[in-house]
Amino acid sequence: MKVTPFCAIRPNPNLVAEVSALPYDVVTYEELKSQVMSPKSFFHVTRAEIDLPEIKNPYDQSVYEKSSQVLKSFLEKGWLVSDKNESFYIYQESFQGRVQTGLVALVSIAEYKSNLIKKHELTRKEKEQDRINHIFNCRAHTEPVFLTLRAPAQLREVFAQAMTDKNLRFNFTSSDGVTHKLWQVESFSETKKITELFSEVPCSYIADGHHRAAAASEVSKRLGNTDFLAVIFPHTELLVLPYHRVVKDHQGLGWQKIKLLAERYFDFSIGPVSKKHEFGVYVENQWLKMTAKKNICDDDDVIKTLDVHILQEFFLKDVFSIIDPRTDKNIDFIGGTYRGLGGQAGIEDYCQQNRDYIGLSLFATSIKEMMAVADMGLVMPPKSTWFEPKLRSGLFLYLIN
Asked: In degrees, to the nearest 5, what angle opens at C-alpha 16 toward C-alphas 130 and 339?
């Protein structure tokens, strides 16, 4: 795998916490507007529509032009500054006792096109075009793609040697409880060692950011750049959380009718979801459990054994006539602790606020399942994985020359 050091654009050291923001796609417009937001928040770059209240379409060209203007102003005001030396960076996130440590680097668009950077999801054209417009107008990769790989044994040791107090550039805890640290690796010997170590890795995998990677590839045809910005983590350090569903029940089926329609494929009981092939159903203000019958669980097929596939093929399609969850307006998705069970915008709250919806909780897809699907050149159903903690935005950028 080819990794390349670069001169990162980073927040002024005194403003790191104030500039940093959640990824552009994990908060709604309404949630953003309800916040008291610092003028230095990176949301003003990634979600510029919040500063254009007269614009109702978030994909309007004026939004992308505003993003570009705000990014330039952040640079002019010194809220963002450029490093002078091409460097690698080591980015660490700590959350609820877990730590994940990855490399911030430029990665090869040619390797993305040749599938050495492997995908496991299809992209949606309108979302891909949105990121194309954003990157092209800003002339920058403002948010990294989240990659993972089967890491060489020496990686932890190499990282540890570079993670010194001298190299530490920031250490702060964001409002969501995640602690973020960044070390800058400038020395020739250390960057050479990292480059050589990663060159031994045959491939990597997109964990999150399929639309950003596809957009970066497309923009490169116009601007001629050969790389895009990524953070690369060992797969053993990552946590995959469930990606739940909520479905509009137009017919008002209720629990008894749903059970009648689905009992050919599922057994029903009461209790929490605790393992693969179990699904929670929130209907009529109560949680019930359905378990897939063995005859529909083909554990010899990497796709058909996935819970997201089983739920789609034997429940959502069969009971609710949802054929394509990527485009159907009657299904929505709730991931991780930002949108998880018991959260402010979780399944229960969603269904209580939208009385004609039922909720569906899943056991998490494993990272090994994700990698197996990508290795076979296949794709998962949409919204199969939710990685957390998310990569904080605004902490490092790459300007396209």
From this structure: 50
Pairing, β 286-292 against β 278-283: antiparallel
| Residue 276, amino acid | K
User: What is the DSSP-derived secondary structure letter of residue 56?
Assistant: -
pLDDT of residue 338: 52
Quick one: pLDDT at residue 344?
Answer: 41
Q: What is the pLDDT of residue 299?
A: 82
Hey, is 129 helix, strand or coil?
A: helix
* Whole-angstrom distance, CA of residue 296 vs CA of residue 298: 6
- DSSP string spanning 210-277? HHHHHHHHHHHHHH---EEEEEEEEGGG--EE-EEEEEE-TT--HHHHHHHHHTTTEEEE-S---STT
One-letter amino acid of 156: R
Q: The whole model's pTM is what?
A: 0.92
Which parts of the chain have pLDDT scores under 70?
A: 337-345
- What pLDDT digit, counting tens, does each position of 22-65 carry? 999 988 888 888 887 999 999 999 999 999 988 889 999 999 99
Determine the Cα–Cα distance for residues 326 and 342; give it in Å rounded to an integer: 25
- The helix/strand/coil state of 17 is helix
Residue ranges per structural domain of the chain: 3-240+388-399, 243-363
CA distances 188 to 91, 138, 161, Å, are 19, 30, 14
